[in-house]
């Protein structure tokens, strides 16, 4: 005898699909936790510009887990989501913090952060995985709600996306520099430290 009511199950499935579409980044992170080691490795190693068959299969499974509908996407959108899935596979997702503060907590240098935030197009797509590998090596998971939105809006031809990308860059920069300003700093000159100890 089944204890589960089919109406309750259908309602639960619908609620889960709505939750996944409203936060696909959390759904991707959850998928990475459940995925086999082969899929995780394929997604972490993939080149968004040159997918191999096993990477395409792993990517498709990951995207389907989010509740998104990729069959309607343009090639540009596929490339952006491929970069996002690759990034979540590399560094995970932590939606609780601000991305700029996470970059500061990982001690990512100011020059790397400013290069990432001023990069456009192909340069941005090349720099992002490097930053993500650095975050992963320092056990800091980025907030993909901010970073994923930047990936989706950066260089997009959709109305309003360029302005939204700039707003995201400014918010990330502000939270990074605000967090860095709060860090105790050692002076460059050792004599300055002796004269003005912290």
What structural keywords apply?
70% helix, mainly alpha, 198 residues
Broad shape: globular
Summarize the main sheet: none
Mean pLDDT: 86
Spell out the helices and strands N to C.
Answer: HHHHHHHHHHH
Rg (C-alpha, Å): 20 Å
Unreliable runs, pLDDT <50, ≥5 residues? 9-20
Distance between the termini: 70 Å
- Tell how many strands the DSSP assignment holds: 0
Oligomer: single chain
Note the beta-strand portion: under 5%
**Treating each run of at least 4 consecutive H or I residues as one helix, how many helices?**
11
Topology of helices and strands:
Layout (H helix, E strand, L loop, with lengths): L5 H17 L1 H11 L2 H9 L7 H13 L9 H17 L7 H7 L4 H9 L2 H17 L6 H10 L7 H22 L7 H6 L3
Helix pairs in contact: 1-2, 2-5, 3-4, 3-5, 5-8, 5-9, 6-10, 7-8, 7-10, 9-10
Description of the structure:
The chain is mostly helical and 198 residues long. The chain is 70% helix and 0% strand. The longest helix is centred in the last third of the chain and has 22 residues, at 161-182. The protein is globular. The protein starts with 5 loop residues before the first helix and ends with a helix. The model is unreliable at 9-20 (pLDDT under 50).
């Amino acid at each position: 005898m089944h204890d589960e009511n089919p109406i309750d199950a259908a309602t639960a499935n619908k609620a889960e699909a709505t939750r996944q579409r409203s936060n696909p980044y959390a759904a991707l992170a959850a998928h990475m936790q459940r995925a086999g080691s082969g899929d995780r490795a394929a997604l972490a190693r993939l080149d968004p510009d040159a997918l191999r068959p096993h990477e395409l299969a792993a990517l498709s499974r990951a995207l389907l887990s989010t509740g998104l509908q990729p069959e309607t996407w343009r090639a540009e959108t596929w490339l952006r989501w491929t970069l996002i899935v690759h990034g979540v596979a590399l560094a995970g997702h932590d939606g609780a913090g601000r991305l700029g503060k996470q970059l500061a907590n990982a001690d990512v240098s100011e020059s790397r952060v400013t290069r990432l935030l001023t990069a456009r197009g192909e340069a941005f797509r090349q720099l992002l995985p490097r930053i993500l590998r650095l975050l992963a090596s320092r056990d800091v998971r980025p907030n993909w709600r901010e970073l994923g939105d930047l990936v989706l809006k950066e260089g997009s031809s959709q109305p309003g996306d360029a302005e939204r990308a700039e707003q995201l860059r400014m918010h990330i920069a502000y939270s990074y520099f605000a967090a860095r300003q709060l860090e105790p700093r050692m002076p460059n000159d050792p004599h300055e430290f002796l004269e003005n100890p912290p």
